[in-house]
Amino acid sequence: MPELPEVQTVVNQLSKKIIGKVVDELRIVCASCVCNPQGFDLRALGKVLSVDREGKFIIIYLDSGVKAVIHLRMTGKIVWEEGNNALKTKGLRAEFKFSGGGKILFYSVRGFARLDLWSACDKVSGLENLGLDPFDKKLDKNLLAEMLKGRKVAIKSFLMDQRHICGIGNIYACEILYRVGVHPQSKAGCLSLDKIEEILQITRQVLSKAIECCGTTVNDYRNIDDKTGQFQNFLQVYQKNCCPKGHRLQKVTVGGRGTYFCPECQKLEQSDLVEQTIF
Fold first, then answer.
1. Mean pLDDT of residues grouped by 10 in the chain (279 residues)?
2. Which of 43, 69, 87, 134 has its CA 20 to 30 A from that of 105?
3. Is residue 172 within 8 Å of residue 3, measured between CB atoms?
4. Of all helices (H) and strands (E), which one includes residue 273?
5. In 10 A of CB 138, how many CB atoms?
């Protein structure tokens, strides 16, 4: 699933392409992936004012008072197309046609991605319960420590819970915790203030580097030019056999997700571990 860096990459690239352009038409190819509950006129969506990100959601604001909310989920993809090139139709769910040329193609091969149209003032399901963004200035070590206080859930599960901190998924949670030297199944409430501060710093460093690299492509992710990201070249534990220090990695299940960690670099007392399953 595209995580914060992949979504931010798409937002950054779309912003350069479509802000100020007028949507001539939104053509729906597959209604099951597109929702227009208020029945907006798809030929009168107007000019693009901004493209933003909230968690893993992409939001396109238009001067007609409509916002298009996109969640790529597992295998969704947005491609920018210019000219009259033949379109790839497999998985194509919708296309935004712009005056003066150019199209946004919205793909979802497995049909899980969503494109919903809402009034700009509407509260959108899925957005209203999002936690703080990792880059939010309000999120400091003291606030994070308060959020973690008394929690027995695994720290990796906490980081991936979008109700607490939004945008972090499986890949980046593994990478962050390895770099900090924290076992992914450490009880969230048992971490020291120094370690909490380090988690916050490393989170921002890893995500910033991944954005700089236009995201991570392990399987399906592509940016709007249909190109892969490059942060997979900097992964240290995710889907690896050994860590950078040469230690053999283990894979466990945390919160239902396959989790890679180094038992040498990420040690802790067994009493501080939540229940684990080793593959």
1. 94 97 95 91 97 97 96 92 76 94 93 93 87 97 97 96 97 98 96 97 98 94 93 97 98 95 84 52
2. 134
3. yes
4. none
5. 7
- pLDDT of 133 reads 98
Please say whether the beta carbons of 245 and 237 come within 8 A.
Answer: no
- Give residue 215's region: left, alpha or beta (phi > 0; psi -120 to 50): left
Q: What 3-state class would DSSP assign to 9?
A: helix
Q: Which amino acid is at 232?
A: Q
Q: Which amino acid is at 211?
A: I
**Residue 51 forms beta bridges with which residues?**
60
Phi/psi of residue 54, each to 5°? -130, 115
Contact 103, 97 (CB under 8 A): yes
Residues 6+ away with beta carbon under 8 Å from 206: 172, 175, 176, 179
Strands in 257-261's sheet, in edge-to-edge order, are 257-261, 250-254, 277-278
Classify burial at 122, counting beta carbons within 10 Å of its beta carbon; exposed 0-12, middle 13-18, buried 19 or more: middle
DSSP string, 111-167: S--EEEEEETTPPPTTTTT--B-TT-TT--HHHHHHHHTT--SBHHHHHH-TTTB-S
Instruction: Tell me which residue has tokens 């957005």.
Output: 127
AA letter at 104: I
Between CA 125 and CA 276 the distance in angstroms is 32
The answer to whether 60 touches 46, Cβ cutoff 8 Å, is no
CB atoms within 10 A of CB 244: 12
